Amino acid sequence: MKDQKELVREINERKIIEAAEQVFARYGFKGATTDQISKQSGLPKANIHYYFKTKANLYHQVLAGILNEWMESAQAFDNQEEPKQALTQYVESKMEFSRKRPFASKVWANEMLHGAPVVSEFLETTLKNWLDDRVQVIQNWVESGKINSVDPMVFIYMIWSVTQHYADFERQIVLLNHGKEFTDEEFSEKTQQVVNLILTSVGV
């Protein structure tokens, strides 16, 4: 059982991470300051340095957390043998992440646009190994006739681009929707349409 000090630490770290996502999404790594993160989190600046030491370390923790959550969402590939169930769960989880964590997705997009200076090694190792495993799953589906022939990497990139669009281009979507954000019901409908389009594209 966690003691009070551990619980306080977890709560404060979560507040700082959530605040950092918003600040890094708005200003990028270089433009963001610990003062801004402190104000956004409602915690003293000293807490940020106590828990994360430096802005660079906090930024790295934010990026690592985002990637880990995305990788966890793909457990559907491991838990479901049939492509319809696996792809449905994966796309739904990616859409849900874009809905609930748009700032996190924007931080990741900004990192990629700047050449992935912080996470390049992580991409070339952890993410590459993870991607290779999922590519093999999709290739097995193709070879067994469960889905139409498709380049697995192109297919995964398509899923990423569609689902993450709802976070990375959130403002554009609002403007094109007469200045209104989607309600939960509307977003659920969009999610189902995305799922259907992706399944149909491979004949499922």
Average pLDDT reading: 90
Major sheet: none
How much strand content do the residues show? under 5%
Q: What percent of the residues sit in helical stretches (DSSP H or I)?
A: over 70%
CATH architectural designation of the largest domain: Orthogonal Bundle
Instruction: State the CATH superfamily name of the largest domain.
Output: Tetracycline Repressor, domain 2
Number of strands: 0
Specify the overall morphology: globular
Description:
The chain is mainly α and 204 residues long. It has 2 domains: 1-53, Arc Repressor Mutant, subunit A, CATH 1.10.10.60; 64-201, Orthogonal Bundle (Tetracycline Repressor, domain 2). Helix content is 80%, strand content 0%. It is built from 11 helices and no strands. The protein has helices at residues 4-31, 34-41, 45-52, 55-73, 76-79, 83-100, 102-113, 120-143, 152-168, 170-176, 184-201. The chain is globular, with a radius of gyration of 19 Å. The model has no long low-confidence stretch (mean pLDDT 90).
The gist of it:
With 204 residues, this protein is mainly alpha-helical. It is built from 11 helices and no strands.
Quick tags:
204 residues, mainly alpha, Arc Repressor Mutant, subunit A, Tetracycline Repressor, domain 2, 2 domains, 11 helices
Helix and strand arrangement:
Layout: H1 4-31, H2 34-41, H3 45-52, H4 55-73, H5 76-79, H6 83-100, H7 102-113, H8 120-143, H9 152-168, H10 170-176, H11 184-201
